[in-house]
Amino acid sequence: MEIVNSVFSWIIKKRIHQMELFMKHPIDVQTELLLNLIDTAKNTEWGRKYDYKSIKNYQDYKNRVPLQDYGSLKDQIIRIKHGEQNVLWPTDIKWFAKSSGTSTGKSKFIPVSKESLIDCHYKGGKDLLSIYHNNHPESKLILGKVLVVGGSSAINSFSNKSYYGDLSAIIMKNFPMWVEHRRVPKMDIAIMDDWEEKIEKMALSTTQENVSNISGVPSWTLVLMKRILEINKTDNILDIWPNLELFMHGGVNFSPYKEQFKKIAPGNQLNYYENYNATEGFFGLQDQSKVEEMLLMLDYGIFYEFIEQSEIHNEAPKTITLEGVELHKNYALVISTNAGLWRYVIGDTVMFTSLNPFRIKVTGRINQFINAFGEELIIDNAETALSNACEKTASIIKEYTVAPKFFTNKSTGRHQWLIEFEKSPENIEYFSKVLDEELKALNSDYEAKRVNNLVLDQPEINKLASGTFYQWMKVNNKLGGQHKIPRLSNDSKYVEELLSLVQF
Hints:
Layout: H1 2-24, H2 26-40, H3 45-49, H4 58-64, H5 70-81, E1 95-99, E2 108-112, H6 114-135, E3 145-149, E4 156-157, E5 163-165, H7 167-173, H8 177-181, E6 183-184, H9 187-190, H10 195-206, E7 211-216, H11 218-232, E8 246-249, H12 255-264, E9 271-278, E10 281-285, E11 294-296, E12 302-308, E13 330-337, E14 344-355, E15 358-365, E16 369-370, E17 377-378, H13 379-393, E18 396-405, E19 414-423, H14 428-442, H15 444-449, E20 460-464, H16 468-475, H17 493-500
Parallel strand pairs: 1-5, 3-6, 3-7, 7-8, 8-9, 19-20
Antiparallel strand pairs: 1-2, 4-5, 9-10, 10-11, 11-15, 12-13, 13-14, 14-15, 16-17, 18-19
Helix pairs in contact: 1-2, 1-6, 10-11, 11-12, 13-14
């Protein structure tokens, strides 16, 4: 074991040094990466179409290649699914990550190349462990096993040459042997389609394992952990896994779930590290203990561009590179990748919290906001306000969604919040007032619309019974894995569906 630790320490130090280099020279690293991507793809069908051979710099690239989304690349992706190659990327692509986007959105099939799998997704996971060990040199993480709470879709085939599934299923399917040996549960359980059966089997099969770290989406990880506690008749997950020290989480904002985790893992033993790993790529990870912002990873085969929030819905939005970004502004993320996504708008929005080095936080989705009354409320506003309101009212949130409730002859417009509480506030009306004040403090547009209740009234809080959101996800066949509760919406579709499940 001493030899293993020595080798591991050497690998960690080497990678930390590489990270320090791109932190010191971010623009140079990104410029070189873009030119390498273009050169690699110059003889693909896409590269020939846009004459990649003659592109000399970012400005050429920007002027020549239009912004893309899944709809504009769908035809090329379909052809690749059917076995054509050298369309968007020169190496053979046989894996496609199935992404549903929102909880009711149509499925997308994102190409996963060998390069993106190894140099992006795997590299991100290894880097997070490297950073963790660098920050916690006393860690015994390597002695235990990792519990992966991944997607619920097994690998399926389009043909004998192309396959699809949740990204987590693809990653697990291609794990090297030494990683697979350290992972639980067994593969046949990990990729089960039936989420409720899967949770039960995961709970039963992992209880006796020496789990030292967990990787997964907070919401579904909580479902699993609570079932394990129930089976073992305890309220402390450390009674089950005494060596548990790390939860690597991503996919959704952690703030609404933080207090629930503290409740079932009391004390300071369990550390929380966030990563920003989407179907399209691994973009960022938390590099500082106890600081909830993520280092933008610049050497994963991904070139970044950004669109200011005010430009997002323009016909020809202006894009900028890292050189032009500013602190605390909301940007839509645009990526060019080593899987053949070119100037691809992924739908996420981010905000820079540091420019030296470049650190970000995810603020929401382009299509998930509320602007029914000119208030321009984004997910980051909602979740920060909600977290602060919970702290001030000694309450804990399980899940929530928000939609506008429009003017009637008898009332002003307002936001309708549907909330499941782990611990309810003593007074819902007071909770609403605190939440309202927090939103005003965070969002000047919201504050302006709240003046004298002329445009917006105080938020309406609907307290839902425990399990309502779970039942709604089940009804919509969206249990587990990558599926998420839509937080903000400009119409009442989700709210009405949820309320239809409530027994009055």
